[in-house]
Amino acid sequence: LGHHMDLRKNAEQLSFKGTRGGAGEWVAYRRYIRLLPPEHDGSQHALVLQDPCPREAAERALVAGVDIWTHKNPERSEGVLPDGSTASACDQQRLRRRICAGQYSFSPEDASIKIRYVATDGEYRLTMSLAHGANGFARLLTWQHYEMASEAGLGEVITFNLGRLPEWKGGGLEDENKDHFPQMAFRPKAALEHLCV
Prior knowledge:
Elements: H1 7-14, E1 30-35, E2 45-51, H2 55-64, H3 92-98, E3 100-107, E4 112-119, E5 122-132, E6 138-150, E7 157-159, E8 184-185
Antiparallel strand pairs: 1-2, 2-3, 3-4, 4-5, 5-6, 6-7, 6-8
């Protein structure tokens, strides 16, 4: 609400139904991650998408992917969503422009996956741990840490609050009604199963 560069649009939003803009606008969005198989040189690439679109649309965009060598990450991957970002927006071109391409590494010692990518405003660092499902196999990714190192050269690191209590306080959510960083479930792609050994 009121985030446009065009001040007339801000005025229209803030004066909606005669109000003075006292109400906020809640936009529900999710983050989606695609971990690509290792390249021949051993590098491991990841695609990250943050958008309020339906899961099926995000999955189509991530499966279609982008050329990781020429793709330009969006200016900001966190914060205000650009115009056209609504829960019903399924435009694949727009979604592919929102994808952030980066690299990931897997640490078997602590079963963690670390993802790094650079947007215009900084370097984003995500750390997730593997969590087991009912059948004993890892089927979930649980957020462990999320930060952004500013590109301004000031050395500023912003750590995002995941809304979780530390283990010494019993773990779990700080507010049981809010989970802005829920676990992510693996969604194997049936079309690629023939590549498994």
